[in-house]
Amino acid sequence: MKSDKVLDATGLACPMPIVRTKKAMNELELGQILEVHATDKGFKSDLAAWSKSGGHELLEHVEEGDVLKFWIKKG
Predict the structure, then answer these.
(1) In this predicted model, what pLDDT tens digit does every residue of 10-26 receive, in sequence order?
(2) Active-site amino acid positions
(3) What pLDDT digit, counting tens, does each position of 9-65 carry?
(4) pTM higher than 0.90, yes or no?
């Protein structure tokens, strides 16, 4: 999937992946897509809740080994 920005949050523990995701989303325009790479397993549920509360759309996620990859559309 094509993204407008990629955020590498691998190796970071809660709450840093969500903090960095929020900062990266603030730099995007409405409708742009952020791709996030993370290794914190709890980030999956955190991101789903955060996206919903912020009006963003979690488009897709995949797991490649230990790395979780997410694509979020800014709402």
Answers:
(1) 999 989 999 999 999 99
(2) 14
(3) 999 998 999 999 999 999 999 999 999 999 999 999 999 999 999 999 999 999 999
(4) yes
In this structure, how many other beta carbons lie within 10 angstroms of the beta carbon of residue 36?
A: 25
Instruction: Find, among 46, 60, 54, the residue nearest to 74 by Cα.
Output: 54
How far apart CA 67 and CA 72 sit, in angstroms, is: 16
Superfamily, domain 5-73: TusA-like domain (3.30.110.40)
Element (H, E) at 57: strand 57-64
- Please name the residues in contact with 39: beta carbons below 8 A apart, sequence gap of 6 or more: 9, 10, 11, 12, 66, 67, 68
Q: Where are the domains of the chain?
A: 5-73
Dihedral angle, C-alpha 64, 44, 5, 59, nearest 10 °? 90
